[in-house]
Recover the amino acids of this structure.
């Protein structure tokens, strides 16, 4: 927002984080070339990607579970690269995931990212994000680490499969309370063909206690990949891939 853009410390942090994000080179991350300022407002120069956001892709459309899983694995791979570089996204959501012309997922907007080892964030900085996709620790305004991205990706996965948000309430306060206190409805209530293993995986990604959650994106990706092969051999759950 404009008041944050007018804050010199915020602009300096944005520039530092943009410079760190510009070092990321991965097929599942939108490349940032440089970060700077125009008329005292932060700006990014980044790769132009032909395609559309995941948010736009799913409008009025239901994606096959196998396509959701494949996209999720790609997002995990991009996040793993960022986390290895000490960068936490902190705002993983469908609007920040681009699907290019080849159907490849690319994570967008590391502008809210935090860089491990940098100076401590302010209270305002630590709670940046999007209501509905925040982790419980984000909602509480606590210091976050890379596991917040795993929770947010779990929310995205749930939404893509169920066609609805797992925590959305009547207002932001209710949504925040659901994130910290409420367990989502079982996916099978909204989508057929959801195996017990897939439900277990998403439950673990959405664990409110980050010590119980997946600790790294590659662990989540490995379970999703293993589940794909396991379910593909089960005639009751076999689906046609439409990637």
């Amino acid at each position: 927002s404009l008041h944050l853009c007018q804050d010199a410390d915020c602009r300096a942090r944005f520039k530092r984080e943009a410079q760190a994000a510009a070092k990321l080179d991965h097929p599942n991350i939108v490349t940032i070339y440089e970060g700077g300022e125009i008329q005292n407002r932060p700006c990014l120069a980044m790769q132009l990607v032909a395609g559309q956001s995941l948010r736009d892709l799913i409008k009025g459309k239901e994606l096959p579970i196998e396509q959701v899983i494949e996209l999720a694995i790609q997002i995990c791979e991009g996040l793993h690269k960022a986390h290895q570089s000490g960068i936490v996204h902190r705002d993983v959501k469908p609007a920040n995931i681009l699907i290019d012309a080849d159907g490849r997922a690319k994570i967008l907007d590391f502008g809210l990212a935090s860089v491990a080892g940098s100076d401590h964030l302010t209270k305002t900085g630590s709670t940046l994000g999007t209501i509905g996709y925040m982790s419980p620790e984000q909602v509480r305004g606590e210091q976050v680490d890379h596991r917040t991205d795993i929770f947010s990706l779990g929310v995205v996965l749930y939404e893509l499969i169920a066609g609805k948000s797992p925590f959305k309430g009547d207002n932001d306060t209710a949504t925040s309370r659901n994130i910290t206190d409420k367990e989502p409805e079982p996916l099978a209530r909204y989508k057929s063909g959801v195996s017990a293993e897939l439900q277990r995986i998403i439950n673990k990604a959405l664990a409110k206690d980050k010590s119980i959650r997946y600790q790294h994106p590659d662990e989540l990706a490995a379970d999703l990949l293993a589940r794909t092969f396991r379910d593909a051999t089960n005639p009751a759950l076999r689906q046609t891939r439409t990637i």
